[in-house]
Amino acid sequence: MHTDCKFETVLEILVGKWKPVIMFQLFTNGTMRFSELQRAIPAITKKMLTQQLRELEYHDIVHRKVYHQIPPKVEYSITEHGRSMGTIMEALNDWGRFHTAHLNQLYGEDEGRQSETFVDAIDNAAE
């Protein structure tokens, strides 16, 4: 590997319980309001959603658009730069399918089903 490895930068963006789920929602649904994201990801707290969105916004993966009106309206979408991650997401999906098949061979079909939902979600997000 090169001494100029930027793998940690990619992991900073992708790793975490919620970032891939948020990205999946935005890749799949397009522009979403904060409340729509909350409803789409019911297990996430408001504080955590805000934190994860800010981190994705910092990395220019997610765009935050504020409408100055009453009540306030904020929308989130994947940026043009964020869309460039589609190739990465697709590669991760391909490996996820390979790994799911591998787990099925090792443990049987039931064990692999746990991974299928996430793998299918990433597949849909990358399209």
UniProtKB/TrEMBL annotation:
Keywords assigned: DNA-binding, Transcription, Transcription regulation
GO MF annotation terms: DNA binding
Presence of keyword Transcription regulation: yes
A Pfam family matched in the record: HxlR
Domain of life of the organism encoding this protein: Bacteria
HTH hxlR-type domain span: 5-104
Descriptive protein name: Transcriptional regulator
Organism: Paenibacillus whitsoniae
